[in-house]
Amino acid sequence: MKNFLIFLRSKTFLIQLGLALVLTLVLIFLVFRWLNSTTNHGEFVEVPDFSKLSVMEMRKSVENAGLRYEVVDSANYNPDYPRFSIIEQNPSAGTKVKSNRKIYFTVNPSGYKKVTVPKIIQVTKRNASSMLKAVGLDVQRVTYIDQLGKDMVYYIKYKGKDIKPGDKLPKTSKIELICGNGKIPGSAIIQSDSE
Fold first, then answer.
1. What are the phi and psi torsion angles at 142 (to 5°)?
2. Is-contact 179 125, C-beta < 8 A?
3. Percent of the chain as helix, strand, coil, to the nearest 5
4. Start and end of every PASTA domain (predicted)?
5. Distance between CA atoms of 9 and 82, rounded to whole angstroms?
6. Which position among 6, 42, 103, 164 has the lowest Cβ density within 10 Å, counted as fewest Cβ atoms?
7. Nearest CA among 172, 102, 165, 76 for reference residue 128
8. Do residues 140 and 175 make contact, with C-beta atoms less than 8 angstroms apart?
9. The pLDDT value given to residue 194
10. Which residue ranges of the chain lie beneath pLDDT 70?
11. Which pLDDT score is estimated for 145?
């Protein structure tokens, strides 16, 4: 143990320890210089605003900015944006990123997704309206016909054509309900013979 302590105070050990420290510092300095040059430290690209651009326009802008892109998904249709345009991007516009960074895009689909018309025949107008609203359809108008069930739905129309429960319509479609007015239809009145 005494020899080891003497070795730790020897000139040879102190010189090698000093060389090891200098070599370590030089190595750390070189690694940081290499990282600065390969990672473009301090060099940033500002992400442009791609909203409302078509996919083709977005591709050109991404390439011109020295970035990469990936279309993640299409969202629910948004009528405020053109069809097949960018409605969302990550990172957002104005963010400073490294060149060659990947930008993720969400694209506006071509239209509303289709929803299934619920079973509303022989249901009251009030319940039918609630059921339609729940799936994303709107009642544009209610027309009454001579039928015994007052405010009972007998037919459904979309753009003047009869539709049935189970048919598919674009979300937010405006439909017409044909309901009974509580009167007995003339064809159902049976006249008795008086003798």
1. -120, 125
2. yes
3. 30, 30, 40
4. 42-109
5. 78
6. 42
7. 165
8. yes
9. 43
10. 38-42, 187-195
11. 94
